[in-house]
Amino acid sequence: MARILVVDDEENIRQIICKYGKFEGYEVFEAKDGMEAVELCRKNHYDILILDIMMPHLDGFSTCREIRKTKDIPVIMLSARGEEYDKIHGFELGVDDYVVKPFSPKELMMRVAAVLKRVQQAQSNDRDVVELDGIMVDFTGRLVYLDGKKIDMAPKEYELFFYLVRNRNIALSREKLISEVWGYDFYGDDRTLDTHIKMLRKSLGPYSGRIVTLRGVGYRFESEKH
User: Fold this and answer.
1) Which of 29, 89, 135, 205 keeps 20 to 30 A from 113, CA to CA?
2) Using one digit for the tens of pLDDT, what is the confidence trace for 121-138?
3) pTM of the prediction?
4) Domain 129-221 indexed as CATH 1.10.10.10
5) Please, are residues 138 and 129 in contact by the beta-carbon 8 Å criterion?
6) What is the tens place of the pLDDT at every residue in 21-63?
7) CA distances (Å), 3 to each of 64, 105, 141, in order?
8) What is the distance between the alpha carbons of residues 121 and 140, in angstroms, rounded to a whole number?
């Protein structure tokens, strides 16, 4: 039985969600603000959060950020604010779905079921992971670790790095990299690739030398230190 934590400063909203959640067979718990939610998540396991944005003490975005420091819990954001900026900000934080008030409790429960199903499928699939002499690349989770420490990259950096790693030890022309990572309809120039290689080397720190420049050709990612 999945456990849901409903975080909203409006009691009537919490009651409605709890009622429908229990009807659908979930265990449902409540928190009246972000501070209480963070504390509850430290002490307990929940399978999904339904999290309001506009709350006293700690807003939904900050609550999500704090919880994600220690727990990777799926989140559905709930808010009366429907501005595009809020949605983008939420998705940048890794929010799984976004529901604007007023909402249909039945639709919300359908979204909860969809997110839980997606998470279960991701967990059941074999993870595509490569370990290369101090570097671990988790393609499934879109994660990169250096000596066991997770590093963050810009979206295009991930795409470029993943392509280099999948084609490690192979000389890749600039044209090939641009067409595969940016697409055939890319209208930029070689400097875009060079800039991203520079950013990528910075992200890789002590492992930056694994990206070798092939003058007049392009680049090669080496699977081992030399």
Assistant:
1) 89
2) 766 555 688 888 889 998
3) 0.55
4) yes
5) yes
6) 999 999 999 999 999 999 999 999 999 999 998 898 898 989 9
7) 17, 17, 23
8) 12
